[in-house]
Amino acid sequence: MDNPSFCSLAENDRVEMLKRIGIDSIDDLYADLPAGLACDGLDLPQGISEMEMLRELGGLARSNRDDLVYFCGAGIYDHFIPAAVDPIASRGEFLTAYTPYQPEAAQGSLQAIFEYQTAIVRLTGLDVSNASLYDGGTALFEGMMLAINHTRRRKVIVDAGVNPIYRRIIRSSSSNLDIEYCEIPLQNGLADRAAIEAALDDETAAVLLQNPNFFGCIDDLSEIAEQAHAVKALAVVSCYPQALALLKTPGEMGFDIATGEGQPLGIPLSFGGPYLGYMAVTKKLARKMPGRVVGISEDGAGERGYVLTLQTREQHIRRQKATSNICTNQANCALRAVIYLSLLGKEGFVDVAESCAANAAYAYAKLTEIDGVEALCEQPFFNEFVLKLPRNAAEVAGEMLKRGVAAGFPVGRYYEGLEDALLMAFTEKRTRAEIDALAKDLKDVLGTGGVK
Amino acid sequence: MRLIYEKSVAGRRGVRVPAPEKDERAAIDPKLRRSEPAALPECAESEVVRHFTNLSRLNFSVDTHFYPLGSCTMKHNPRACEQAAGLPGFAGLHPILPQLRGGEGVCQGALELLYRLERSLSEITGMAETTLQPLAGAHGETTGTMIIAAYHRARGNRKKHIIVPDSSHGTNPASAAFAGFDVVTVPSNDRGVMDLDAFRAAVNDETAGLMLTCPNTMGVFNPHIEELADIIHAVDGLMYYDGANLNAIMGRCKPGEMGFDLCHLNLHKTFSTPHGGGGPGAGPVGVCERLRPYLPISRVVQRDDGSYSLDYDYPESIGYIAPFYGNYGILVRAYAYILMLGASGLKEVSETAVLNANYIQEGLRPLDYAYAATNDGRCMHECVFSAKPLEKYGVHAVDIAKGLLDHGMHAPTVYFPLNVDEALMIEPTETETRETLDNFIAVMRELAETARNNPEALHAMPRKTPVGRIDEVKAAKDMILSAPQ
């Protein structure tokens, strides 16, 4: 065979090993397989060498455009990744280890996760972080389930500013569980306090919010957390990590659970994953939190060591009574996040956030100067905002794409009546020249497309 | 090692980004701002690089050690697959693109890869169609149990429970509960196979389905598989294949032809994507023809003109289970692996994995005064022994696990499956050499001798690892889960 199979035996090894086992052929190993079930091989192409594979996939990769300038976010952001992140996180000792079940042989992974948990605690202002969940959407779902299990209630209030993709994941993931949803429309771009307060009752398990919300608007949600607590419901918020560098934290706002998408923390766009769901909770919820968690302890000699702890919450012990079915999580993505945050450091991470905000403010001024373009809602934003265009935003975004610019996300896909609204995001990677060119292109496109 | 936070010195900077341009319009209202910056480390880049590099050296890994962790399939991870996933045309692609008008046109290659992988996995499992969206094995199980629930709802069936054998992974019952089902656990017989009579007694009109690994976690191929399927199908239940152990059977048989209606795969096991210290993985779910309507959205389809597209129009679908198209970077790695191996390579993988496991099983069999075999015939990709004979010396499975660490080998899975006392679950995989297997057997013999002659020495192991045995009770009691500020 010319193709690699990565099997490590020579033909002679096989012969000797079969002899040692006391059988004549590999077929004897499959004696339990009923004859009628054996298949006639696989209808797949024959294998190819590493070189040929890279040539073939290189061709597929090249047929995608990798030179687009991104002004679209909608939960996933094109941030700069420091060069050191990849080589360290890709070291074989990290990459090819598994879940640290044997702590003595996994102190590297365990300490790194502990340091990640510490970073998440400090970013969110809450007490306890787990070792990671899959992504921002499933993390919010797990946060909601935690609130439902804790309160033993079944009603959930969802603010319409929560990422609509997350809301769909939550709905479908819970379709077999008895949960009643109450969705509250935004009021001028922000969470509607009066409507939320009216919906809160002693059946309510949780209120789910997002900051900045899907429209990019930022808010002080303290009052809503207080309203939730008044009826003994929990307050859950999903947050963009870079925004946490600047904004009032979930902890400061009195939230019980913070979740979010950790992709912006040094993880490539990679067409949808792998990403990183983070979760932080108050101390009283720690024992009900889903997922792995690493704690400090010591060995017999009193040496500090790290170990997976509170495992009695988990599926491999509790089986059907576990707090969640999660097993494998996103450890290598969490590692990337803690390396990213350590490389940028306390001041560097704030710089990244300030750059994002400055770019967005510059773009906002520039873009709203265009005839017929205006802000959808006049609310403060971090690095993302929605513009109302003089014509269909999906059409405009399509025309911009032809010019090599991913100008934004047309929110009409998920919000009825907002077909002319475009959600635009600005990271520290965008230059003033790129933003100027964006404004010029948008002006051209709107000009040639005519005004309704 | 000290924590990165303990190495932090005020004012030190690592990687710099261009200073933010001062723009007063960007000023955020103080009442919306956090009171002080997050206390992230303040370290020079050199310090950060050295810190994490040195941390990595405290780990055992497949790259550095034999790692026979049962049911986890810790095989070699080819670096070519890493390189493929890192190609800018994949790694730099924003997932929202296909949702923009004309967006599918700028990511045809990425969509084509999804389509080809979907077809390949469906062929390997004998299923009609596969969703690539589930983000891990357990997430695949979630998806699968949701599909089971959707099927029964559409049929007007009143189903209450899902059956699992007592040797199943904990994720099986947890996932069944997630989809709103009760769980009925059926005991295993002497050979570690689910007891057929007990199974028959457990099945009734309220049975939604059976979740099964095959071969099972005992490394045994269930010889009654066709009968199990007949019994389940007679009550309109569904057969769910947990693909954790697919590494044993590729090219030899297909779950879809064994009576299974749906299955999940763990790409990070069978298809060699790195385990990453506990993820990310990927857990695609394949279904038979009659379950296709319930698969999640979106789905990748090939249009008549040969181009690729995402389709959302499936009214009976269980809906969105993940934000985009799965853990794409992991999917690229798995497809790269399948491309390199091809039909005969995948078959060779399974046969070699089974050969290696049997070689270990036969090698350990003579050590029955220490390790009792659970299987007197052939095993599949893994073998399970019980360390119960060592109890008379006061030695347990955990001691053997720690002893192996001192000999430079990762431990097998211990105390699982639950139906075996003092279980040692050993999965060598196909990428190990015969010398490594011989060495493992020799070390197991030496540890058995030590248990007999000097059990205290075993209790003191490991001594050569960065730390000794960690006090797990103290960790749970103290509950220090982040660095104090």
The counted number of beta strands of chain A is: 15
Overall spatial form of chain A: globular
Percent range for β-strand residues of chain A? 5-15%
Number of domains of chain B: 3
CATH fold-level label of the largest domain in chain A: Aspartate Aminotransferase, domain 2
Structural class of chain A: alpha/beta
CATH topology grouping of the largest domain in chain B: Aspartate Aminotransferase, domain 2
Q: How much helix is in the residues of chain A?
A: 25-40%
CATH architecture of the largest domain in chain A: 3-Layer(aba) Sandwich
Low-confidence stretches of chain B: none
Rg for CA atoms of chain A: 25 Å
Please state the CA-atom Rg of chain B, rounded to the nearest Å.
25 Å
Order of helices and strands of chain B: HHHHEHEHEHEHEEEEEHEEHEEHHH
Number of helices of chain A: 14
Could you give a short description of this structure?
The complex is a heterodimer of chains A (452) and B (485). By secondary structure, chain A is of the alpha/beta class.
Task: Kindly list the characteristics that best describe this protein.
heterodimer, A: 452 residues, alpha/beta, Aspartate Aminotransferase, domain 1, Aspartate Aminotransferase, domain 2, 2 domains, seven-stranded mixed sheet, four-stranded antiparallel sheet, globular, B: 485 residues, 3 domains, 11% strand
Textual characterization of the structure:
The complex is a heterodimer of chains A (452) and B (485). By secondary structure, chain A is an alpha/beta fold. Chain A folds into two domains: 69-77 and 345-449, Alpha-Beta Complex (Aspartate Aminotransferase, domain 1); 85-339, Aspartate Aminotransferase, domain 2 (3-Layer(aba) Sandwich). Chain A has 14 helices and 15 strands. Chain A has helices at residues 11-21, 50-62, 85-89, 92-95, 107-124, 136-151, 164-173, 193-199, 222-230, 241-244, 315-318, 331-367, 393-402, 432-449, and strands at 69-70, 128-129, 155-159, 180-184, 204-211, 234-239, 257-261, 277-281, 294-298, 304-308, 374-375, 384-388, 405-406, 409-410, 421-425. The longest helix of chain A is centred in the C-terminal third of the chain and has 37 residues, at 331-367. Chain A is globular, with a radius of gyration of 25 Å. With 485 residues, chain B is an alpha/beta fold. Chain B folds into three domains: 1-15 and 39-58, no CATH class; 81-340, Aspartate Aminotransferase, domain 2 (3-Layer(aba) Sandwich), CATH 3.40.640.10; 343-472, Aspartate Aminotransferase, domain 1. Chain B is built from 13 helices and 13 strands. Chain B has helices at 45-56, 79-85, 88-91, 108-125, 137-155, 171-178, 196-202, 225-234, 328-364, 397-406, 434-453, 455-459, 472-478, and strands spanning 129-131, 161-165, 182-186, 207-213, 238-243, 262-265, 285-287, 299-302, 308-311, 372-373, 383-386, 413-414, 423-426. Chain B has a seven-stranded mixed beta sheet, with helices on both faces. Chain B has a four-stranded antiparallel beta sheet with strand order 10-11-13-12, covered by helices on one side. Chain B is globular. Chains A and B meet through helix 1, helix 2, helix 4, helix 5 and strand 2 of A and helix 1, helix 2, helix 3, helix 4 and helix 5 of B.
